[in-house]
Structures are given as C-alpha cells and as structure tokens.
Amino acid sequence: MKSKYTNKRKFKFLIIAIILAIIICYRFSIAETIKQYGRYEEYRKNIGLSNATINSNYGDVNDSLNHILGRYLLDTLHPDKNLIYHIGSYCLDSNLLITEYKPIDKSGSKISILTRQVVVQGSFNHCLDLVYYLEHNDQVGRVEAVTFWSFTDAKDKMIRLNCRIYIQNLTSLPNETP
C-alpha cells in the first residue's frame, strides 16, 4: 500500500509541529520563568536589599536591620504610613465597610509592637483583596492573622461576611547597643 502523504508533505508537517512545540514551550515555560524572575527582582528591590551587602561590621548590620524594621515603624502623621487611611481608601474603592478598628495590645521589651484589629464587612473576594493589599504594602504594618465569619443580620435577614485582620506595627526601634 502506498501512503497518501509524500515525504515532502510529512516533512512540512514535522516543521509545523516543531514550530508549534517551540511556541508552546516558550509561552508556558520560558516566558513564565522570565516573569517570575522579574517578580523576584521586584521583591528584592522592595525589601531594600538589592544592592545592600551586610558586612560583619556591627554598625553596618545594625543600620541594615534598622532600615528593614523601619518599614514597619508606626507613623500616623504621614498618610502613606497611616493604617486607617490606607484601609479607608481601599474600602471606599471596594465596597467594603469598616465595622471595627481598635488597638489590641502593646507589647514592650526591646522592640515595642502595637497590634491593631480591623473588622471589615463585604464580599469574600474584596476581603481577600484587602488582605493581599495589606500584606504587600510595606508601609502600613505586618498582617499577623486573618479570620472570616458570617452571620445573619437580624434587620434584613441577609447573611453578612466579616473579616477580622490583626496588623502589627513597631512603635519604636530597638535601642542600639555597642
């Protein structure tokens, strides 16, 4: 039996299949690798260690540590470091409602840490977006814990979702010791 495809036609199919395989490999592996590397470089830049080298010199290590910890230092006078300003503006844009905002605990030893509780009400996706925003915004604090719960509102018999977020900030940097 003679094949209806000639060698020349089979070779063209093979070339097309190779080109498609190269495009697929580039799209799903090489391009994603480049994108992940870009995210990694952005992360390194955000934490401030891209060009910083920590020497064994105590002063350099202490300066680097103060620089890293300074990102979480509480400063309510500046809107870019004010937690309620960030959450309020985000909630306005995302149809979330702030139902509670209060300081919980101020622990103090060498580093003084203030923990605050924020409760917002809204859709699950918007609450998750808020948590993601707070975790990736270095200026407002560190997200310590998040809890979700729903309840039936007695007024209108609607089920509401609440999200409680605990956020920690430094109120002072550790004292420098020689």
Provide structural commentary.
- With 178 residues, this protein is an alpha+beta fold.
- It has a domain of 99 residues: Ribosomal protein S6/Translation elongation factor EF1B (Alpha-Beta Plaits), CATH 3.30.70.60.
- A 4-stranded antiparallel β-sheet has the order 1-2-4-3, with helices on one face.
- The radius of gyration is 26 Å and the shape is flat.
- A hairpin with a 3-residue loop joins strand 1 and strand 2.
- The longest helix has 40 residues.
- It is 44% helix and 26% strand.
- About 4% of the residues have low confidence.
Q: Report the structural category.
A: alpha+beta
Q: Which second-level CATH architecture of the domain at 74-172 applies?
A: 2-Layer Sandwich
Categorize the overall geometry: flat
DSSP E strands, number:
4
Helix content: 40-55%
Amount of beta strand: 25-35%
Question: In a nutshell, what does this entry contain?
Answer:
The protein has 178 residues and is an alpha+beta fold. The protein has helices at 7-46, 58-70, 83-94, 124-136; strands at 97-108, 112-121, 142-152, 159-172. The chain is built from 4 helices and 4 strands.
